[in-house]
Amino acid sequence: MEALRDTDPPHIGAHTLLARIGAGGMGQVYLGRSPGGRLVAIKVIKDEITGHPEALARFRREVGTVRAVRSAYTANLIDASLTAPPYWLATEYVAGPTLADAVRERGALPADTCRRLFAALAEGLASVHAYGVTHRDLKPQNVILGVQGPQLIDFGIARAAAQTALTQFGTAPGTPGYTAPEVLLRGEVADAADVFALGATIAYAATGRAPFGTGEPTAVNFRAVHGEIDVTGVEPGLAALIGACAAVEPGARPALAEVIRRCAVDAALVDDPVYATFLAAGAESARGLPVGLPGGLPATAGPGLVRGPGGYVPTYVPPLPVGAPGAAPSGRRRPPRWAVALTACVAVGGLAAGGYLRLRDEGGGAAADGGGAGAPSASAPAGQRPAGGSSPSASGSASAPATGAEGTGAVPGRIRATNPSRDLWTGTAAGRGQCNLPAEEQSRYLVASVVDADAPDAAPGAVTGKATINVMLKPYHQEKGPYLVAVGIKPPHEIDPATGRPFADILSENKGIGYTSKPVDLAAKAAAGGSVALTYPDDFAEEFTDGQGKSRSLAAIPVANDPGGWTVVFYRVRGLTEYTSIFCTGFPVK
Length: 590
Prior knowledge:
By secondary structure, the chain is of the alpha+beta class. Helix content is 21%, strand content 21%.
């Protein structure tokens, strides 16, 4: 923890900032104090990534997950601001070091301490899983050794346990060395993936070494899939339990209840003599005096949650008792300000959490909506993605749908990225290959092909200039109503918008949804006995929302700008930010 810098704001929302706790990939974390005097940890998303839809989607997902999970092993959500920059969330402040810091400063922990920590973290994960959520990024940096026991933090990539198709922020989900093989190989995630990460986390605690070594992330991930976890020098019984948790096949890993049973703890973790050495600093911080900072911290703005700088409206304001000055009349309570703010967000955003864009036909009737399979339940945490589909996000605005060139009904404009895509095609110069992830939604009736526009009758091979994408529904398809499809074409690498080519310093795997076409109604085309032909790059562009909430568009780049394997993903579209992959292919570019 360190003192604030001159560039740091004095307040975030209604909270007074006291110190810097640390920084991560998403942003800066501060120690703050609420107007009522409660210490809070405030994560503020970086200015430079507020214009990235995938980053905002991840942040909103984290807020939704933390709000939904109310556990003794997680820091509860206090407040959040998601409507405009700066985006931030405030949780309970948990005093204490991370497990990573504790091991780095002290060294490997004794076997008895590791067993007690093993059992406590297993119990914490079981509590989180009971809410239908998998953490997906358990690692030593995301475990705080608090005075009440270990706390799990950073739910930025957590998802509902039933959602096995991954589209994630970053080149791979989770952290190399702590991500389960089935997640890396097949994009499958369930409770067993957290068990693998738990074993890897305890391996680090017991050895002080990275569980699968260090080096390039791809090399570490390879060892996690094909190698053995490092438990050299660990007490045999503990090493065996770690190894069982880190089994390659998820079905071979023990359940969390079995992990707890095998740990056979005989005393509370907080009474462990080694763990107790980590709590002295935490106890001081819990009294409101962060370690390393002088006394006399700045005062708060006043009692209660009040309107802070910049017109901030608190997430929650306790209602006044009936009859008190300013209270709503009895019998008809005035809605709290958070409810008014939420209503405004829904009206402006159109695609708020759980909302679907409703498409209308020319007669004004409902042509398609979000009901039926894949629709999120009203009780699902905000920001979670419905099974088999991409998560709705407030980052996509429901502006009036553009009239499509294809089909008889109105269709939404070009889809916008809310979650990155890990679909990647790898193949040969002859055009034969495969994608690394299965489709999120089955489409038995879709037929598609990609050919070189300059030689459409030639055998499949490399595209040299333009590509023609042909797509149709089989004549005997059984879909009811419109069947909207957009095509996304991804270069192999992330593209620098300034040059239209891969970033000069870093070649990074493309994590976007691609340059996309406008959605077309394949059902209407099939009824007329035709198909759809799209030309890349002419019919493709990238749509996104910048940090000021304005819609932006980038033209698709020539294929020659980024030689390699290009990925073509077909998305079933239900709204501007509501779509699922239904087919994937690709083509080589020399």
